[in-house]
């Protein structure tokens, strides 16, 4: 291969090579992580339950399920707390078929998770701590700032979720196999404390493992934007965890006035924002160059799209001005949702202007939209010239090609991939199953 060849600068050539290599994936892509975030609130308007994962076969494909979220508090002391007790362990949710029925007092999502683990003993279930809440962010800052605070937080979280002391009279030991720390986001003054917090969790989990004989899992959520990951000591933070769930989305969104790809694999000189690191490949390179081992890099893939309206019919709507976020469509794509309060069934379950689930977006080509694939960026978009509405999202083609990138980016590949969020896939779990195929999972 000529020394001048660079996959980073020749995505079309790389795409061709990856496609050829697809036939040998099972030989090389072994033991890849395939994770999925399950949002506790998905059991409400979306009507998506743990049981769905068993019914549509997605549970057979996942290696890790990340349950979002638990809260972090500092009142009266640093501790973990349940974010939604009704959804977590009180609500009557559909039983997971084939498992021992869940009964009171442990019902809800937690009871269903116990059922799912009965049927899939190799599935690792992690509780994700924090999330985008400002209260959680402030609590992380305070708790991580002292050794005593870090010790108290880790001890509390382990007792609540790993030991399973859920509430008075409710015990579920072994419900969770570890943690995903989602601190959004450490500032420059938090850099050392962030690593120290991970170290404390890792130390306490290792100590517990010596008594139980189990290997517990630690991970943290890694941001895609350089303004956020620059505040993390990536090399040393990575030493404390089994893998990192690294965002591969939100590179663009309805907060921007100009349309763009929200989750492109590669940069493009056609992009007005070229060279600003707003693509997955740039994020991967930055993490690897910072010292993160490739096998700990887990690529995030969105099961939702970003949308704009008031977009002129130029370049299929890409890189164009807009008048604002796209309106919320009905879940079947036939019209627009007129009730964003969640009182009327049938709307896209995100109920948020500028966003729509893959499940909804997959219906739009039957409802006036045209689909466009950008082979330079490995990105796909939808455009309706009549309504001037543009969406950027991932479909099975981009999902599969991104998994080939995971398989072959470096010798041995990256660690795997995950999705946010499981409820946003179609009823058959098409996106997750496509990713599993791209990561070399057999059909058995």
Secondary structure elements and pairings:
Layout: H1 11-21, H2 25-28, E1 33-39, H3 50-55, E2 64-73, E3 79-81, H4 85-90, H5 108-119, E4 124-131, H6 134-144, H7 147-162, E5 165-167, E6 170-171, E7 178-183, H8 191-212, E8 217-222, H9 226-229, H10 234-239, E9 243-246, H11 280-289, E10 297-302, E11 304-309, E12 324-325, E13 355-357, H12 358-361, E14 370-374, E15 379-384, E16 389-393, H13 396-408, E17 416-420, H14 430-438
Parallel strand pairs: 1-2, 1-17, 2-4, 4-7, 7-8, 8-9, 9-10, 10-17
Antiparallel strand pairs: 2-3, 5-6, 11-12, 11-13, 11-16, 14-15, 15-16
Helix pairs in contact: 1-13, 7-8, 13-14
Descriptive labels:
TIM Barrel, eight-stranded parallel beta barrel, 17 strands
Describe the protein:
- The chain is α/β, with parallel strands linked by helices and 444 residues long.
- It has a single domain (11-303, 395-438), classed as Alpha-Beta Barrel (TIM Barrel).
- It contains 14 helices and 17 strands.
- The protein has helices at 11-21, 25-28, 50-55, 85-90, 108-119, 134-144, 147-162, 191-212, 226-229, 234-239, 280-289, 358-361, 396-408, 430-438; strands at 33-39, 64-73, 79-81, 124-131, 165-167, 170-171, 178-183, 217-222, 243-246, 297-302, 304-309, 324-325, 355-357, 370-374, 379-384, 389-393, 416-420.
- A hairpin with a 4-residue loop joins strand 14 (370-374) and strand 15.
- It starts with 10 loop residues before the first helix and ends in a 6-residue tail after the last helix.
- The model is unreliable at 1-9 (pLDDT under 50).
């Amino acid at each position: 291969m000529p020394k001048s060849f660079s996959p980073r600068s020749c995505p079309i050539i790389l795409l061709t090579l990856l496609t050829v290599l697809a036939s040998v994936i099972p030989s090389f892509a072994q033991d890849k992580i395939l994770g999925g975030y399950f949002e506790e609130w998905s059991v409400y308007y979306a009507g998506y339950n743990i049981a769905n994962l068993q019914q549509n076969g997605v549970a057979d494909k996942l290696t890790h399920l990340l349950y979002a979220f638990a809260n972090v508090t500092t009142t009266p002391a640093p501790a973990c707390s349940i974010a939604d007790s009704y959804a977590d362990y009180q609500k009557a949710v559909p039983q997971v078929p084939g498992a021992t029925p869940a009964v009171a007092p442990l019902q809800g999502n937690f009871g269903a998770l116990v059922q799912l683990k009965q049927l899939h003993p190799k599935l690792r279930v992690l509780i994700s701590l924090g999330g985008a809440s400002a209260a959680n962010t402030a609590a992380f800052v305070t708790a991580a700032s002292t050794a005593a605070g870090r010790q108290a937080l880790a001890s509390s979280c382990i007792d609540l979720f790993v030991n399973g002391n859920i509430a008075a009279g409710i015990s579920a030991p072994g419900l969770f196999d570890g943690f995903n720390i989602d601190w959004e986001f450490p500032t420059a003054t938090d850099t050392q404390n962030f690593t120290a917090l991970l170290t404390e969790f890792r130390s306490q989990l290792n100590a517990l493992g010596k008594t139980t004989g189990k290997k517990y899992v630690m991970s943290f959520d890694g941001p895609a934007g350089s303004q956020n990951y620059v505040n993390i000591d990536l090399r040393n933070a990575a030493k404390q965890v089994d893998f990192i769930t690294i965002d591969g989305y939100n590179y663009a969104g309805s907060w921007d006035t100009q349309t763009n790809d929200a989750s492109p694999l590669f940069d493009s000189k056609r992009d007005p924002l070229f060279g600003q690191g707003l693509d997955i490949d740039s994020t991967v390179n930055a993490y690897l160059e910072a010292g993160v081992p490739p096998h700990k890099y887990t690529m995030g893939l969105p099961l939702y799209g970003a949308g704009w309206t008031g977009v002129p019919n130029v370049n299929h709507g890409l890189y164009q001005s807009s008048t604002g976020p796209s309106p919320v469509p009905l879940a079947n794509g036939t019209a627009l949702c007129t009730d964003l309060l969640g009182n009327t069934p049938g709307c896209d379950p995100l109920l948020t202007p500028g966003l729509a689930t893959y499940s909804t977006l997959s219906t739009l080509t039957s409802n006036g939209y045209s689909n466009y694939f950008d082979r330079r960026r490995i990105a796909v978009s939808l455009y309706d010239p009549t309504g001037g509405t543009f969406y950027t999202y991932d479909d099975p083609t981009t999902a599969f090609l991104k998994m080939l990138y995971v398989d072959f980016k470096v010798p041995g590949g990256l660690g795997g991939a995950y999705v946010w969020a499981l409820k946003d896939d179609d009823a058959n779990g098409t996106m997750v199953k496509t990713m599993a195929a791209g990561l070399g999972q057999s059909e058995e």
